[in-house]
Structures are given as structure tokens and as C-alpha cells.
Amino acid sequence: MEIEKNLFFKLSVFLIGGFIIVPIIVIFFQTLNLSSKDLIDFFNSNFLNYLNRTLVLIFLTSLYSLIFAVIPAFLVTFCNIPFKKTIDLFLILPLAIPCYILAFSYSDMLGFNGPIFNFLNSYFNFNSDILNINWLSIFLAFSLYPYIYVTSRISFSLIGSTYLNLSKSLNLSNYAIIFKVILPLSFSGIFSGLMLVIMEVLNEYGAVKYFGIETFSVGIFKYWFSLDNKSISIFLSIILLIVVLFLVFLSNYFSKRDEKIRYHVKSSINNYFLYDKSYLYPFFYFIIITPIFFGFIVPLLYIINNVVANFNGYNFYELFELTVNTTHVGLISSILIVLISFYLLNIKRLMKNIYVNNILKIITTGYAIPGAVIGLSLMLFIRFFDLTFLMGTLYLLIYAYIFRFMSVAIFPIQSSLDRQPILFDKQAKSLKSSYLKIFSKITYPLNKNALLSAFILVFIDIVKELPITLILRPFNFETLATQTYIYASEERLAFSSLFSLVIIICCSVMLIYVTAILNRKNVSKS
Questions:
Q1: Which of 8, 123, 218, 276 has its CA 20 to 30 A from that of 499?
Q2: Residue pair 39/232 in contact by the 8 Å Cβ criterion
Q3: CA 288 and chain centroid, separation
Q4: Which residues pair with 275 in a beta bridge?
């Protein structure tokens, strides 16, 4: 097709891609100017502490997330229990509650003189301090396990019944089938969800700062803003970038290896159940409902109770202003991200150029990079090119959102475009149709549900985003997320509850809506 030979489209992809990733390039260049004395002092004093706290938090959160996610995903897939669609939806809903809000809520409930603390103290002599890394990892797991649940559920569903029937014919027990067939075949799916959890832990700032856990993300904020030591902040950012890129490489490696063994079996497991005994259902439901109860219902009810109890003390004009700010920046960023993603993916689809494909792969790593690193890289970028007039503007904040959340839009749109045969475009072109007409009559109608899904998913992430917004927001400009964090950090959790509730309601409604679209239109859940 003509577009394949059009230099303009190829150059546009390189310019857009280069513009998006240039801050990360700048941060690597800044490593050349690091102070060796500061780095030596840091290695001798605090580096091992930051490394230890970060690794321990990752390990514990990953472990609990796997337990909360993989077991329910297995039960929903391989057990003949009623209400599977409803259970699927509720197991995803904890994603609507950001980690920092869930951690704030439980710290208030289980903290000294909190309602659950008083109850447990009265009957069980509970007096534990919950502001530690062990409790924090549990709270983060309750918020993040849906990432693993979704990928595990899809992986289990993709296992053809041929594998399971062959296992039964070899007289393998259910226990052997689980550990020798199901889990090995689903490893890459579970691992990809685990990678998302690890990346979210590395990105988390609000909860770890409130609990006093010194992770790399907290260190970047501390050394840049509190201690005015740019060298250590840049160094910590580079460490995080290297770790994240390694995790992305591992995830891609396991995904490619898994493709060789999974997809040649077409038969479905929709009617294949390993456990079909009704007397076990209460036990199964207990396991399934536990993460829903503690990850969504308990914090939601507590926040609602706080809002009702303090209703007359809230400034609803402030709520309206913050909601307008959040919606304004979220809508503009989401629209731009979806449009740019759709444009780049269409060029990639029609050109089939290896360089264009590599640019897209680099862009999709943005979601893996912690918000603190992106914020720091943009500040270095502004200083490096003397663009200080952009500091404290919405343009810079939106630019950061575009870099971080581009991949959130790319994956569902890419999955939808893969279903559109290139033959449609060729036949339309043979009828002398223009590219604009092909887009309006063929490409857009076939992919509009994927575009809507991508828009909603990006908007949800922007509403919840904290580190980037804290670093780059304009002066006197707050969002629901930043104001929630500010009130919580001032120990005014009752006042933060109203803003938390608005975030949860907004994200929950959108998650339910996008799930309905995915189920009805069979848009890929990538």
C-alpha cells in the first residue's frame, strides 16, 4: 500500500516516539555528572537499607498477591460453582481502590484507638503496631492481587481440555494435574501478572511514605526535595530503571517461550471441572470471598462510615474544585493518549517496519517505569534544555501521563486491530477510497469498543496516579489523589475519606462498565 512508502508516516512515528522517551534518555546522560563522593557516602550508609526494604516489600507483597489471586482464579475456572461472572467482577473491583487509600484506611482501623483495634484489643488482647512492612505488604496485596487474578484466569481458560483429558487417561490425580499440567502451562500468564504487581510496588509512594518504609521511590523524593541531593536521586532512579527493564525482559522471554506450547490446542475447558462436589462450595466461597471482603468491602464501608460521620464538616466546594481538576486533566490526557496510540498502531499495522515496531516496544515500557522516576526525568529534562517556563504547568503533567500510560491504551487497541484483516483495507483502496474514508468507514467502527475501553482504563489510572502528580502538578493545583494524600499525611484521615470515596466510586463504575464492554463485545482483556 502507498502508506508503506510514505516517508512522512515513518518520520512521524520516530518523532512522536523520540519525543515521548527523551526524558529517560536524559536521565541516563545525567549519570555522567554524578558526584562520586556522594555515591560512596550513600553506599556506606543508606543504600543497603533502601535495597533491603524494597526487596522485602516486593517479596512479601508478591507472595500474598499470589495466594489471594491464583487460588480464587483456579477455583472459578476449574470448579462448577454458581455466579462465576459476578465473582469475576468482584474479584477485579479492588483495583478501584488505590494502594495508598486502602493502606490509609486500614492504618486508621487497626491503628491505636481505631474501631477494629479496640475490638481486637478487647477480646484478643491485640496491641500490635501495624505501621510496619509486614502489614503494609498485606494491604498492598489486597489492592494489587487483581493483576495476577486476571492474567491467571485468562491463562487457566486458555488451557485446552485435551491436556486435561490426556492427564486423566494417564490416571494422574487432581493434585498431579494441578502441579504438573495446569500451573506449568499457566506460568507465563501468572508471571506477567506478578510483574505488574512488582512494578506497582516499585511505583508506590503514598502508602510506603505513610508507613515509614524507605523504598527506592521514597528515597528519590527524599533526596531530591528534602535533602537537595540530585546525585543520589538520579542514582536511585537509574537502579529502578535497570530493575524494571530486566523485569520487562523476563516477562517477554517467558511469554515467547510459552507461545510454543499453549495455543495449538483449540478445545475449550468451559465444561471441564476438576472439582464438582457441592459440599465443597462453602469452603470454595470462603476462599474466593476473603480477598473481596478485605480488599474492597471493608475499606469501602469504613470510608462510607467516615463520610457519614463527618458529613457536616466537609467543604463541598473544595470537593467540586478537585473533581473538576481531576476530570479536566484526566480527560485531556486520556483523549491524547488514545489518539496517539491509535495513530501509531495503525501506522505499525500498515507499514510492518521493524524500526517502527521497536519504537512501539520502547514506548510500551513506560507503564513499567515508576512515577517518581518519570517525574524526576522530566525535571532533569527541563533543566537540561533550559525549558523552565514549562515547570509547574499542566502541559508537563499531561506529557508525563502520556509517557507513563501509553501502554495502557496500546494493548487493548492492538488486540482489536489484530482482528481486523488487512484485506479490508486493500479492497477499500482498490475501490479508490481515501485513507480518511477507510478510517471512518472501516477502521474506526471495527475498533470503537476497544478505543472506549482504552480510554476508560487510562482515565482510571490517571485518577489514581499519585507520584507523578505530586512532583509535577502546577502550583495551587490539587487533584482528588493528591488531596487525599495530603490530608492523610496530616493525620486527617476522616477528611480524606470524602475524596477517597469519590475516587473509588468513579473507578468502580468505570471498571464495571469496561468489564461489561469486554464481555459483551469480546474485546481482548490484554
A1: 218
A2: yes
A3: 22
A4: 79
DSSP 473: P
Q: Which residues pair with 79 in a beta bridge?
A: 275
Residues 6+ apart with CB under 8 A from 30: 234, 380, 384
**How far does CA 32 lie from the centroid of its chain?**
32
| DSSP H/E element including 375 | helix 371-384
| Burial (CB count within 10 angstroms: exposed 0-12, middle 13-18, buried 19+), residue 327 | middle
One-letter amino acid identity for 489?
S
304 vs 311: CA distance, rounded Å: 10
Position 84: which residue type?
Answer: K
3-state helix, strand, coil split of the chain in percent (to 5) is: 85, 0, 15
- For residue 6, the SS3 value is coil
C-alpha cell at 103: 493502606
Name residues whose C-beta falls within 8 Å of residue 422's C-beta, 6 or more positions apart in sequence.
349, 350
By CB atoms closer than 10 A (0-12, 13-18, 19+), residue 402 is buried
| The three grid cell numbers given for residue 468, joined into one nine-digit string | 507523578
Instruction: Give the pLDDT band of residue 524 (cuts 50, 70, 90).
Output: very low
What does the alpha-carbon distance between residue 203 and residue 218 come to, in Å, rounded to a whole number?
9
Most confident of 173-177, 341-345, 384-388, 439-443: 341-345
Whole-model pTM: value is 0.86
In degrees to the nearest 10, what's the CA dihedral of 236, 51, 144, 200?
Answer: 10
Q: Label residue 2 by pLDDT band (50, 70, 90).
A: low
Q: For residues 286 and 311, what is the distance between their CA atoms, to the nearest angstrom?
A: 34
What percentage of the chain carries pLDDT values higher than 90? 32
Total residues found in the chain within this entry = 526
